[in-house]
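User: My instructor asked us to take a sequence, write out its structure as tokens, and then describe one feature of it. I'm not sure where to start. Here is the sequence I was given:
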Amino acid sequence: MTDVRAITEVLGADKSAPRTSYRAVVERLASVQKSGRGAPGYSRWVNRRLGRYIAAWAYLRALTPNQVTAISACLTFTGIAGLALMRPSAPLAIAIVALLLAGYAFDSADGQLARLRGGGTPAGEWLDHVVDSVKSSALHLAVVVGWFRYYDLSHAAYLLIPLAYALVSAVFFFSVILSEQIRRERKTNATTTTAPAHEPAPILRSILVLPADYGVLCLAFMLWFSDAAFVIVYTALLAANVYFLLGGLRNWFREMSRLTS
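Assistant: Let's start with the prediction itself. The structure tokens for your sequence are:
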């Protein structure tokens, strides 16, 4: 592994002042951030900032992006397992939210760390996407199990709600990844990442799409111990995500159609 002192020398930081070196890394990370335009509010204003701090910590300890991805997976899947295997309670809900949000922050950190190190690798990108694809469906399947085992549901049909959410999440994830891949092949990144002048204010957009934010979904599990409250909030989030997915599919199809013209 790269020695921490060597890293601080490259950064031009004082070896005897680890705080200075940490701040230097955070500042460098801020200069290589992806555009947050249009990203949901929690991901844009909270998670990316947390990921930046984690990435700086990982960089100074010579961790690789894949190792950060592995930490993210361990945190996330521990929280998911708690949904399916443990009886809901307020302390459990707090622990699950903490695990899921921590996993999400590390998920942001791996990409930031890769950019700080000069770019990621195909294997790293593949690993990150595989972990994301598993968690996007596994989270809702764990809700199915938790509802079946512990919730006092008036009808078994309620179990269709998290199953539908799992389907929506899988389609959403695949559509986003596939659209990005096609854009790369067509070399249209420059035109797709620049927002037109008439686009609504980025801040307003980030607020409007909050129901589609994974971080907001994680926070909703704070109500996991309350059957009625969680079912209502979770169902409302599903309805919003169905709406966003349908609109996204329409827009992506139109965009892909223009690429062939």
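For the description part of your assignment, you could build on this observation: The chain is about 75% helix and 0% strand. Try explaining in your own words what that tells you about the chain.
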